[in-house]
Amino acid sequence: MGVDAERECWELRSGAGVGPLQFGMSPAEVAQAPLVPGPQERVGGPYVQEDFPDGVKAFYDSGKLACVVLDAVTGPQVLLSGFPLAGSDPEQGRQFLLDHAAEHGNWVLYTPDDSLSLTDLGVLLRSQQVGAARLTRPLCVKEEWWDSQYFRDHLPLEGASG
After folding, report:
1. pLDDT of 13-48, one tens digit each?
2. What is the signed CA dihedral for 91, 97, 98, 102, rounded to 10 degrees?
3. Residues 17, 6: Cα–Cα separation, whole Å
4. Cβ distance 152 to 109 under 8 Å?
């Protein structure tokens, strides 16, 4: 699956955020960002989580934005060196991240669920079941979470809908 012409494209800002969302924003600031007017649902769990109807999930730590998860199909697209991080084949995504790390000297980390991340860029690539296919879905994570084994091992493991 490639980049959809109708899909909004967000810029990845290493360790700072993605698209209009900046790590450290309050839920009120996230709701005012150019997304949709307010979250569709608030979810309980180890983090405060807000799900927006446009395929964006926001996770908060101590009331501040700490992680943004983009749906493989309905969320905005994020490109890394031209590669679409949302909605790609998981094996191609994994290989792309490994190649990117080798070329640019990125720090590679495997999470307990065997997902691959480039910690210095603040991106973790997970897969999502969409019909009969599995597609990539990016998680953009604040830098402090990579520095803590607790947070690294407890990155959002929310269920993926398709």
Report:
1. 988 999 999 999 999 899 888 765 565 656 666 678
2. 160
3. 22
4. yes
CA proximity to 97, closest of 75, 119, 76: 119
DSSP string, the chain: ----TTS-EE-EETTTEETTEETT--HHHHHHSSSSSS-SEEE-SSSEEEEETTTEEEEEETTEEEEEEE-TTTSPEEEETTEESSSS-HHHHHHHHHHHHHHHTPPEEE-TTS-EEETTTTEEEEEEEETTEEEEEEEEE-HHHHH-HHHHHTS--PPPP-
pTM (2 decimals)? Answer: 0.85
Q: Tens of pLDDT along 107-150?
A: 999 988 888 999 999 999 999 999 999 999 999 999 888 777 76
Residue appearing with tokens 């807000």 = 50
Q: Let me know if 45 is exposed, middle or buried by CB neighbors in 10 A (0-12, 13-18, 19+).
A: exposed
Nearest 5°: CA angle at 158, between 109 and 64?
80
